[in-house]
Structures are given as C-alpha cells and as structure tokens.
C-alpha cells in the first residue's frame, strides 16, 4: 500500500524536476544543471521499482556499461550527475503531450479523424494508406503528438480486432507515416543538422526529399494493401453516404489543420526569438496553446477535466521512460568521452573509392547505432569528422540525401527511441517487436535515398 501511495504522487516530484529543467534552459546554469543531475539520480532510484522487468534490465545494462566506460576513462566520480541530464528535454516533452491530446479530444477532433480513417474501408488493406497519410499530414504540423493522436484513434477503431493484428497495423501505419513527414520538414532537427554539416541549401534538397517521400509512400501503401487485405473488420463509425455530413467533416479537419499550422508558426516564431530548439519550444508552448485553443472553442471545462486526469495518470506511470532515458543518457555521454568514436569512422574511410558502398555503410551505421540506443543526432555527431572528409570527393547534395534518409529511417526501428517508446506505451507491445516489424521499411527507405544520391553524383 505504501508503494501504491508513492506512485500516486510521483507526478509532483517529476513535475518539480521538469520545471527546474525548463528554467535552466533559459539560465544555462552549471550549478542548477548539477542539482538537476542529482535529482535525476533520485528519479532513477524511485522509478526503478515501478518499471517493468524489461526496462529494469535495459536500465541496468546501460548503467553497468556506462559505469565501466566512465571509470575506465578516468572521469571524476562527482561528475556523474552532469552525465544524466541530456535526455531531460525528452522526458519533459513526454509529460506535456497529454495536454495537446486532451484539447484534440475535447474538441472532438478524434471523432472526425475516426470517421476519416474509417471512410470507404472494408478491410485493413484499404484502411492502411489512409491511416499512413493521415499520420503523415498530422505529423507535418504536430510532430510527436500526431503519433499518439493517430494511435489513439486506431486503437479505438480497431478494438474488436485480434490484438496482435491491431498492434502490427498501428506500429507500421503510424510510425512509417510519421517518418515520411519528418523526412522533408524544415523543423526536423536531423534535417537541420544535415544542412549544417553539408552546407546544402534546403530549397535544393527539398525536391529530392519530396520525391523520396512519394516513392516511399507508394511502395509502403502497396505493401500495406497486400499485407493487410486479408483482415476484415467491423466499422465502429457509421459513415454511409446519407449518414455522415461530409461538409462538416471537412470543415472540422480544416479547423484542426489550421490550428496545427498556427501552433507550428508560433513554435517557429518563439524558437527564433528565444533561440530555442524545436523540441523544447514545442514543450513550453503545448499548455498555453492548448488552453487558448480550448477557450476559443468554448471547451475549457472538458479540456481541464480530460487534461488533468490524463496528465496525472500519464506522469505517474512514466517510470519506464525515466529509467530508460536517464540510464541511456549516462551510457551515451560516457561513450562520447572515449576513443570509441574513432572506431566508427574507420570503415567508411576504407571504401572511399566506392560511393554507393559508403552510402550503404552510413545507412547501416545509423540503424545499428539506433538499435543500441544511440540517438541519430549523436550518430550524426560521431560521423561529423568523416562527413567533412567525404565532402572533398562526393557531391554534397548526394551526401545530404543519404544523411537525412538514413537518420530519419531509424525513427521506426530505434527500440529505445521516443516514437517507438510512445508506441510501446499506447499499444503495450515489446519495443523489439516494433523494431523487427519496421526494419525492412527502414532499410528500404535508406536504400531509396542511397540509390537516388548515387544517381546524382
């Protein structure tokens, strides 16, 4: 009973740490960062007992390997707290996501999406392209929240289906649709990093990225129709021609897209004015924007009722994420202080005269590193020295295409990545199941990018 009481009020402690982190993003205080690191140790200790067996195992492995590397590199013991805070922005964003979902539900946009996803689909094969495209469209405006919104809708729409089939459908349609949105978005950090490293202008890169999106969407939709057409399902929403007001449905969707477009414009504006990264800007704007949106729709009561309860429940059950991301931060930061980075760079330089092979090696490095919990941003940093050398004899545009497609493709297969973990939370699947299901897609997406990049040499 005592343990139950503790976990009922975890949201208070978590929120306190997240607020300190938000404050410190503006202050950039090393002292406050160190305090947050100490609080992160307490978060890890408190959350460990509430985490599932899988995440306890993963956390233990990351801490053990990170500890061996940390002490082996001669670091001072008192520096450990500074190695634990790099993923705090991801945890803070996770805590904020329920508020955006709540305003969407309070405005009953999820019902409209439900109708849209159900339209003219008698089997899952016909439903697949629409589900993927809906996630792609929403993710272009809403990024991470689009995944949870689409998955919530599909969980409800397909609730009568076999759980394994339902989870497979959700983890392929939504994650793949999300990556296709990230691939061309100027707000995606991986796109921005690629442009920074290669000095290729976005307007030059954009047409080729859109071409890759079109090709990938066509091939994936074709696969989805063939793979899922054998599964019929009962439509949970009556959408017969005489029943649904399609004009009202279109108006509702346009309202949603307009709100999401406004949200992104505000993110861009405040990101530039305050010089903040995209993820953090989204995090601090979610609550005020959601409240103002609910106010304009005259849905503030339902917004607070849905939001408060959902947020408390979600935050109180973040133990898996806390254990994963704090231990992963320790592991990744410890590795970054060693000569391991040089080991990653060597295979590429050996095949300098074979550009297509180099492109495939880059793709495999991104995917392999993501399977071991290394974020593609970190992998991009690891490869930065090699990228400079490759620019001496490779077309910068070709290299930029490979870097974008290779890094973004890992979103669907990074077992410890944010999107896969959100899907794990929403479907109850093992993250490795999601990874295996999407691995062929990640390889094909990266392969398309590599082939197009090679043809442009």
TrEMBL record:
TM segment ranges: 6-26, 31-48, 54-71, 133-154, 175-196, 202-223, 253-272, 278-296, 317-336, 348-367, 374-391, 397-419, 439-456
Domain of life, source organism: Bacteria
Keywords, sorted A to Z: Membrane, Transmembrane, Transmembrane helix
Name this polypeptide is given: Citrate transporter-like domain-containing protein
Organism: Oceanobacillus zhaokaii
Upper lineage: Bacteria, Bacillati, Bacillota, Bacilli, Bacillales
